[in-house]
Structures are given as structure tokens and as C-alpha cells.
Amino acid sequence: MTAPPDRSPPSIPSLADDAAALPAWHIDAAALRTALDAGPARGWTVEVVEETGSTNADLTQACRSAGWVEGEDSARVRVAYRQTAGRGRQGRPWQGQAGLTFSVAMPLALTPARLSGLSLAVGLALAEALEDVAPVLGPRVGLKWPNDLQIDGRKLAGILIESVPARPGALWAVIGIGLNLVRDARMEAALGRPLAGVAEALPGFNPAHLPTRILGAVLNRLAAMRAVFLAEGFAPMAARWSARDAFRDEPVRLLHDGTLLAEGLARGVDGDGHLLLETADGLQRIASGEVSLRGAAA
Ligand code: ATP
């Protein structure tokens, strides 16, 4: 018996799963300025470059040579359409071709010890900004402790924070963000892990306008977060973070270099950004450090 002819249409890579199908997009500088002028990031300086090694490395370097400039208006933003040496935590590589990659250098009159929870605050600001842009994204985007964004367990965005000491009691926080606009099948194959993209959760995703709107919303959210964080730290944000926790009340494992450190039920986070882990020995507070969280089934 011969198989019936295959009449299914040839598969065409869709925008939602192929970075190569993503039309060239650009940040609309005028629209971005309008968005920032209407919000708390109004004084922030933004530069956009075609290509660089790493926007975090660029700003870290710039902060070292610039010295300390007090005040929210001295925050600097660097966006790159292409990064040739993007990095995640612990030097892991970040592939940015399917998304928006940028860094923010913000001055914080804080000691390093007071930075506890900052990376969670940044993740929350990013998730809330996506919801500002499109309310439909709110319930789709979850937070994975300490600072990943994900959709249905697949990584949507990564965050890397580095700090540059400025003077006693003051530092620059250099915050790098990589946000996938599309879910890229080729990159998934190369990385060997499932990824997510904004487009898959957003009907009518428009690459001509959306990156600018997202960037404006994220910068305004980060500027608002900065003011709260300086005054009160992460504590006022802990309940909002826990409400978006993708693993809330689920069994999880904590790993360091592939070695199991602890396992239990994820019970949200405390006011310092520590993960609350309910274990057989009671509730443990886990500081982020170099710990990675995985679902118990992973
Ligand atoms: P952790 O759970 O400890 O945060 P992680 O593997 O997610 O672990 P990160 O440092 O947050 O580590 O991010 C770097 C990792 O992200 C890389 O090792 C790579 O697997 C993955 N990655 C790189 N580029 C992308 C991307 N565009 N989208 C999603 N994931 C990516």
C-alpha cells in the first residue's frame, strides 16, 4: 500500500519562532524620548549602537572612568542591536539575535550589602513593564527566582547585574537585560533548551513599534523601582514578586554547579529577595549567590 500524498502546506517559518523572519527593527528615538519624558526616566540618557561586544561591559567601563555623579538623571542606557559577547550570570553566554538587549547604569547611594533583592526588583520591573505595554502579557509571564522571566517554563529574558564601586556608600549598578522578542527555533537547538519570545504571547505583535514601546516602559519602571529601592530596598516589592512567581507552591531543587543543595516547596520570597524554601527541616531562606533553581520535574 502506498502512503497518500502529503497535501499539507509547506511549513513556513513564522515570525513567532524564527529570528530570521523578524524584520529589521529600530528603536524610534523620538517615540522613546516622548515615552521617557512622560515618566520617571525623563532625565535618562539613551544611546543606541548597531553592534558591540557587551552593553554591560561598555557601561561598566564607562562607570569606572566617569566617577560618581549623584542623582537619578545621571543614569545611562546603552542599547545594541547586536552583541558579539553578551553574557549571563557567571559568564554564561547570552544570544541576543532574537531580541532586545540593553544595559542601564544607575547610580545608587548604597553599600553593596544593601543591594540584596535588586536583581529580583529588576525582574519584577521588567514583567510589570511588559504588562504595561500589553495587559495580555501579564498573566503569561512568570518570574523564576532569582531573576529570569519565563513563559510556560521557557526562558523569555535574562538579567545580569554588576556593580562598580564609586565612593564609600555609593556605587553604579550596571543592569543588563536580554529580552527575546521571538522564540527562535535555531537558537533553541543551539542552546539545547526551550526558549520563549514576546511574539508568541502577543497577538498582533508588531516589530516596527513594539521594541520602542517595551524599552520605554522598562526604563520608566526601572526608574520608579530605583526610587523605591533607594528608600526601602526590595521589601515593598516582595508581595508583587511572589504573586508572579512561576514556581509558587511547587516542588523545586536548588543547584550549585549541578550539585543539589536543597529541595522543597517554593513559598515566594522575603523582603531581602531570599527564596523561601519549605524543606523537611523547616523553612529556609536562600540567598541567590550562584544558586540555580529548577522545577523538581526538570
Ligand atoms: P539560572 O537558573 O542559574 O539563572 P541560566 O542557565 O538561566 O541559569 P543565566 O546566566 O540566567 O543562566 O543565563 C545564561 C543562559 O541563558 C545561557 O547559559 C544559555 O543557556 C541561556 N541563553 C542564552 N541566550 C538566551 C536567550 N536569548 N534566551 C534564553 N536563554 C538564553
TrEMBL record:
Gene Ontology terms for molecular function: ATP binding; biotin--[biotin carboxyl-carrier protein] ligase activity
One Gene Ontology term, aspect cellular component: cytoplasm
Record keywords, A-Z: ATP-binding, Biotin, Ligase, Nucleotide-binding
EC id: 6.3.4.15
Domain BPL/LPL catalytic intervals: 35-230
Catalytic activity: biotin + L-lysyl-[protein] + ATP = N(6)-biotinyl-L-lysyl-[protein] + AMP + diphosphate + H(+)
SUPFAM superfamilies per record: C-terminal domain of transcriptional repressors, Class II aaRS and biotin synthetases
Transmembrane portions of the chain: none
Pfam families noted in UniProt: BPL_C (PF02237), BPL_LplA_LipB (PF03099)
Record Gene3D superfamilies: 2.30.30.100, Bira Bifunctional Protein, Domain 2 (3.30.930.10)
Record InterPro entries: aa-tRNA-synth_II/BPL/LPL, Biotin_CoA_COase_ligase, BPL_C, BPL_LPL_catalytic, Transcriptional_repressor_C
PANTHER family registered for this protein in UniProt: BIOTIN PROTEIN LIGASE, BIOTIN--PROTEIN LIGASE
Protein name: biotin--[biotin carboxyl-carrier protein] ligase
Organism: Cupriavidus campinensis
Lineage of origin: Bacteria, Pseudomonadati, Pseudomonadota, Betaproteobacteria, Burkholderiales
